[in-house]
Amino acid sequence: MAVRTTDRWIAARIRQEWWHAAAWVLLGLALSAVAVGPSLYVPGKVATEAAFRDARPCDSEAPARDDGAGCLRTIRGTVLSARTVKSGRTKVFRVRLRPPVPAPADQSIDLDAHGDLSELVQQGEGVDVTTWRNDVVSVSQGGVRERLAGLPDEDPTVFTGAALVVVWSAVLAFIAAFGSVRRARCLATGRPVVPRVPFGRAKPVGVVAVPLVAAFCAGHFWGTWTAVVMAVVLCALIAVPATILALRWDREPSPASPPGKEATGPLGEPV
Fold first, then answer.
1. What pTM was computed for the model?
2. Using one digit for the tens of pLDDT, what is the confidence trace for 127-165?
3. Cα(83)–Cα(78) distance, rounded to whole angstroms?
């Protein structure tokens, strides 16, 4: 009777692992499809970035407003209001110019609440606003200049980073599917289920921490596209040796789990 109960339990676990594997594969395929979205935007964003970086100051004959112009336009305006306000969870130094001024300088401009301009700009004073197409690039006064965040030269790295995050998640889903298949086969053949790298529940932390640390280091020491490339290189330098080590480790004979202690799978979960 006990043998039949054990056999039924093993059969149920095998079916469960195969269902888990199918679910992980479907998730990996879905994430791979999602990664295509931001990837499709990257070429266009790169072209816009190149146009922005090559932009030169507009000449005096340029029209007062031309959203398609590829030049940097300087708009001289008078400050209507300048005060620190809350924007979401952060504080910004919001400046509005007295109309009439051409777009996009006719909208409120959010500067760093702790920047130099927040201490200089006052109501009724003049400021220079540099614009490019529909974006405000910078604000300056008396030789002090502040460049705004979220400009076109930052978009490509944001979209590339988003695509890499989703691709990394898809890879993890496929690895989890492989682990479920491996556990199912081990249970079916009566072999002990021994994790490739026996770090238990600490493994997911390492899997998530590695790309975060690599991205932080790359962004700290390099800029823009170099940081993206170096983040991938750093992850590869860590992941490839770790994978080879894990595969070699798994070839060694592994003893069965000791009595009273349940074996664990590749992500530290009980099997």
1. 0.58
2. 999 999 888 999 999 889 999 887 887 777 777 777 878
3. 14
